[in-house]
Write a structure and sequence with these properties.
64% helix, mainly alpha
Length: 160
């Protein structure tokens, strides 16, 4: 069925010329601002979900892999800071003068904050599924341990 005398079809999607125009519009939608095709994910990713290693990424080696998960390394660094803080407190509280209530309260507060930060960063890093995973697991484990110890010490101090 034709609606104009010029010969254009009533249903342009059944015509080769009009259908090609629509396909070009879809192609333009699938491209980003720079004109490159949009990343569909499957063809450019390996099994673990990371970008497939090309010649430029293979040259970077282990250093790029280590820097790729900054959240895990931050969780690990906060967990190390928590451990050092606890060691300093234990050493200074065991001194002959002992620790006063203010120092103990500051220790509990700082330990609680550091442990929560380490645990949350560990969970976030594990959710990203990047490698290496051991810094995230260490941060999560030390953070949860510090949180449990801080809460039980606080509850023990309240009960006394």
């Amino acid at each position: 069925m034709r609606d104009e005398p010029s010969g254009t079809p009533a249903h342009p999607d059944r015509s080769g010329a009009a259908g090609a125009g629509r396909a070009a519009d879809r192609g333009a939608r699938d491209r980003d601002v720079s004109g490159r095709a949009a990343d569909r994910g499957a063809r450019d990713r390996d099994v673990s979900g990371r970008a497939a290693a090309g010649p430029e990424t293979a040259a970077l080696g282990e250093a790029a892999e280590r820097r790729s998960d900054a959240v895990a390394w931050t969780a690990f660094a906060v967990a190390v800071a928590l451990t050092v803080w606890q060691a300093v407190y234990a050493y200074s509280a065991g001194a002959p003068g002992g620790a006063d209530e203010t120092y103990t309260a500051v220790n509990r507060f700082v330990s609680l904050i550091l442990s929560l930060v380490a645990a949350v960063l560990g969970v976030v890093s594990l959710a990203q599924r990047r490698h290496p995973m051991w810094p995230a697991l260490a941060g999560l484990a030390i953070g949860l341990n510090g949180f449990i110890v801080s809460v039980t010490a606080w509850l023990g101090g309240v009960a006394v």
